[in-house]
Amino acid sequence: MSNPVYVAIDVPRLDAAKVLAEKVKGHVGGVKLGLEFFCAHGHHGVMELAHVGLPIFLDLKLHDIPNTVAGAMQAIHVLEPAIVTVHASGGRAMMEDAKAAAGENTKIVAVTMLTSLDENDLSRTGVAGSAHDQVMRLAELAEAAGLDGIVCSGQEVGSVHKQWKNGFFVVPGLRPAGSNVGDQKRVVTPRQARDDGASVLVIGRPISKAEDPLAAARAIEATL
Ligand SMILES: O=C(O)c1cc(=O)[nH]c(=O)n1[C@@H]1O[C@H](COP(=O)(O)O)[C@@H](O)[C@H]1O
Question: How far is the CA of 66 from the centre of ligand 1 (A)?
Answer without folding.
Answer: 24
